[in-house]
Amino acid sequence: MEATPRRSSPEMTEWISPSAFPDLPLNAVHIWRASLEIDRESQEKYARVLSDEERARAERFVHERDRISYIASHGFLRELLARYLECRPNTIEFTAGPHGKPAVSQVRSPFALGFNLSHAHGVGVAAVVRGREIGVDVEKIRPDFAGEEIAQRYFSEAEIAELKQLPHEQRATAFFLCWTRKEAYVKALGEGLRFPLDRFSVSLTPGGPIQLRADDAGRWGIRAFEVPTTSGMTHVGAVVCEGDDWTIQHLDWGGFENGQPKRSPQTL
Predict the structure, then answer these.
(1) Is 157 inside any structural domain?
(2) Do the Cβ atoms of 42 and 254 come closer than 8 Å?
(3) DSSP assignment letter at 9
(4) Number of domains in the chain
(5) pLDDT tens-digit map of 121-171
(6) What angle do CA 179, 236, 267 make, to 5 degrees?
(7) Structural domain includes residue 97
(8) Torsion sign over Cα 96, 101, 106, 109
(9) How many CA atoms lie within 13 A of 54 on its CB side?
(10) Which of 30, 65, 107, 156 could serve as a FRET partner for 262 with CA atoms 20 to 30 Å apart?
(11) What confidence tens digit (pLDDT) does each residue in 54-101 have?
(12) Which CATH number do you get for residue 75?
């Protein structure tokens, strides 16, 4: 099974709020983060840019927090993509791949724009790239969820063995490092839930090298990041993108929207 080149995990991710919207070179990946804990005015603003289908889906959520999270994440995505495509957010049309992976309709897009969206517990993350397949995932570290039973169900034998070798206090973080890296890879493939999760492996030791072990690992590059929050809990994430010749920028949507350029690991 082929493996990607080894890369070290960043100890702390630096998020930048650009003073102007950045250009997207061919060999760059932009990762944007946004808080999904928004006020009523922002909810109404984002709801206005959604499609009729998206608004209808939002109304079907039973819990209010889930409805707000959906509106905020998909409104944020439309506003963000509209900046790259130089169009109005509500005019963007999406198509779906064979297994449901969304893409921008080429009718609306002046160039091939790859993107992927993930959100968890108040944090939204969108990855954007030109002309490449990409997948991103973000998760909140939850020790109560990171159980051995779930690992046995979703992780490969190699991942379970690596997890068991770690000190107990590192296992919750390692669990979610594994989870996000696996999810990002599957989303980049566009295969959805039909792809067997035990067919490939990722490294998961906190602070250790990041590695993807898969039959097509040479096709992909993988990176990891952190999103600190004011709650004191950290979200971890991963992005998998075609090739390994790309650089990455971590960008703060809230700071850009509010015209507050910053360069720091500031919390959401």
Answers:
(1) yes
(2) no
(3) P
(4) 1
(5) 999 999 999 999 999 999 999 988 888 888 999 999 999 999 999 999 999
(6) 160
(7) yes
(8) positive
(9) 22
(10) 65
(11) 999 999 999 999 999 999 999 999 999 999 999 999 999 998 888 788
(12) 3.90.470.20
Which residues fall within 8 angstroms of residue 110, CB to CB, at 6 or more apart?
85, 86
Q: Is pLDDT at 6 greater than 60 in this prediction? A: no
The mean pLDDT value for 12-25 works out to 90
**Residue 262 forms part of a structural domain:** no
Query: For residues 230 and 18, what is the distance between their CA atoms, to the nearest angstrom?
Result: 21
Residue 221: C-alpha distances to residues 3, 185, 191 (Å): 10, 10, 18
Q: What is the pLDDT of residue 91?
A: 92
CA distances from 236 to 11, 67, 169, 197, 250 (A): 11, 23, 16, 19, 13
pLDDT bin (cut points 50, 70, 90) of residue 12 is confident
| DSSP per residue, 71-120 | HHHHHHHHHHHHHHHTS-GGG--EEE-TTS-EEE-TTT-SS-EEEEEEEE
204 in a structural domain:
yes
